Amino acid sequence: MVQAKVEETYYISHGAPTLSIDDSLPARGFLKSFRDTVYGGAQRPPPTSILVISGHWETDYPTVNAVSGTCDTIYDFYGFPQEMYKLKYPTPGAPQLATRVKELLTASGFQRVSVDKKRGLDHGAWVPLMLMFPEADIPVCQLSVQTNRDGTYHYNLGKALAPLKEEGVLIIGSGSATHNLRAPRLTDGSVASWALEFDTWLKDALLDGRYEDINHYEERAPHAKAAHPWPDHFYPLHVAIGAAGENAKVELIHHSWQSGTLSYASYKFTTAE
């Protein structure tokens, strides 16, 4: 059977690790309904494999995991309820996809691309995927971010990966639209002004197709350093945009807040015809 191409990429805000168990978070309900309400339901064939760019894997050079067999579930968080450390997402690895990612990046001028044959999936990958594709039967490959580089670099990384969509690969950037874990948490239901202004700027820039502004968000966005003291959770967005293409249709597919500072804004980018 010939696999239908995947016409869209996604940026999913995975927020806090408690997304894995906390039913009070609206984002959890959104991700649990993702397959039916966003991806097309049972009538749409699943992707051949999934490539996840997670903000929880930082390396000096692009690195893919090429796991033969089942991916390990990495618990890269501390001090949370014990039940979270018992969760498993035993999805198969995608070593063939890892090889293809390396081929595409190398052909596009990324001179050094590493392969890790042991690393499993960190919680930036398995927490949202556990909710989006709970059957854990789609091969998954993870790609790292390079926090020593900039947004344009990651946008070009995404552009290099665009052909994967023609091969039935679903590309997901997993991070958080705002990600300042040291900011005071608000308990009165309000949203911090700096977080709201950055989040609104991001939505407007994306819906207007102002990708250059997003690539240079440090200089052009309000409160950029407050929203992202470190760029690890923002760069997966640049990869998703680059892989979708310049004239992609942008949709805000979910929006909610946690603690008044953590935005769960998530976006779909559909490649132009």
From TrEMBL:
Span of domain Extradiol ring-cleavage dioxygenase class III enzyme subunit B: 9-269
Matches recorded under Pfam families: LigB
Cofactor(s) the record lists: Zn(2+)
An example Gene Ontology molecular-function term: oxidoreductase activity, acting on single donors with incorporation of molecular oxygen, incorporation of two atoms of oxygen
Keyword Cytoplasm: no
Keywords per UniProt: Dioxygenase, Metal-binding, Oxidoreductase, Zinc
Family membership: Belongs to the DODA-type extradiol aromatic ring-opening dioxygenase family.
Protein name: Extradiol ring-cleavage dioxygenase class III enzyme subunit B domain-containing protein
